[in-house]
Every structure is written in C-alpha cells, then in structure tokens.
Design goal:
By secondary structure, the protein is mainly alpha-helical. Helices cover 61% and strands 0% of the residues.
Amino acid sequence: MLGSIAGDIIGSVHEGRGTKTRDFPLFTSASTFTDDTILTVAVANALLGGGEFVDAYHDFFHRYPDAGFGGRFRRWASERERLPYNSWGNGSAMRVSPVGFAAGSLDEALILARQSAEVTHDHPEGIKGAQAVAAVIFMASTGVDKVGIRAEVEGRFGYGLSLSLDEIRPGYRFDVSCQGSVPQAIIAFLESDGVEEAIRNAISLGGDADTQACMAGGMAEAFHGGLPAELRATVLARLPSDLRRVVETFRARHGLP
C-alpha cells in the first residue's frame, strides 16, 4: 500500500495539469497526500481492526475533510450516510490496495474488494474496478508474472490491455470512471520496471494523475517486493503520525518491507 501512497503524493501536483511526459521532479515542496491516501489508510485500518469499511471511511474523512474528496463522497461522508450512491468512479479502485496485500487467496481478494467498494460504489463498474486492482496486487505479490496477470485481467474483467502507453497517451484525457482509468493504470504498471517508473508512466497519461499513479504504484510495489529505501523513507516522512502509524502497523502485520 505504500506504493499507492507514493503514487498519490507524487501525482498530487499533476492533478488536472495534463502532464504528458515521464520527465518531472519526483517530489516538490507542494507534493502532498490527498483523499486517495486517506481512504487507502482507512481500508487498511478496517482490515486491521475488523471494523466496517463504511465506518472507517466516515472516520478518516472527518479527520481530514479538506484533502480533496469528490463532491458526492464528501456529502455522503459528511452526513455519515450508510447507503451507497451507485458510483462507477475510480474512488473504489484508488483505495483498495491493502486488500490485495492482506488477502490469503484471489477469491478472498475479490470478496474483500467488493465489500470495500460497494458501501459507496455499488455500480458494477465501480465494483469491477476495485476488484481488478486488488486482483493485480494479489497476483503480483504472490509471484504471478506479467503475462499471467494480463491474461487474468483481460479474461476475468474484460479490460482491454493491448494498447501501449504510447498509443494511449496522445488522445487520453482526464477520466474519473473506473472503466476509463483502471485499465490504463494497469498498463502503466505492466510497462514499468519498478515502482518509480510505474508512477511516472501513470502520470504521463495526463489524466487523473494522483489516482492512476496511486493504483499503478501499489501494483508495482507488490510485483517488486516493496519500494526502494529512499522512496519509502520520503513517503513515510510526508505522512502525519496517525496515518503513518496505520501504514506501519499494516506493513508489520503482513510482512511488507
């Protein structure tokens, strides 16, 4: 999940800017965590404590209400609503990475991903996006190679992964739907040789930069067995103590480097 947080922080300054290059400073003074990180930590916290996802989302939103949450989620969480709102947005996929690391089987990853998604994103596309990201992370962390991951995603979820980033990038625009952002984030991971490259790939699409980098970073972390030490230290240093404590507890519980 630390790769997801890294992607969010690095991508935060590219949000809405249409960045179409991999060549940019990895961190700036303005690089910061956003709602992607907060809800990723909320999922991890729910998995650690066995609580309800809906309660974790409410609680962590109220800790950081000004972190860039989308309008519909903000209203839902502000009022502590408990019914979902049929969203197909990529919020379900951006927060799901802890599921992929915590699950003991692919089936469990799919079940937990659905549960984490459907309290808000109960549209089939919202659920599918979360399940796809969790499945990639589970497979990547358990030794499945990229050929196998690609085949499973295309076969199980029907996402087309045949286009290259160079083919996607010129015409790609900001898209917050799962169906319009998750496959591209998976391709960004598949074309990378490390966590940093996966994040740069995702941002270079010029779309929903922090969220797609969040997804790609988590996948690459799982595949490569963690983050480089310097990147890991920089990311942890940019988290407030309460979020960092959950991240470190989750990493220790699941043996993550």
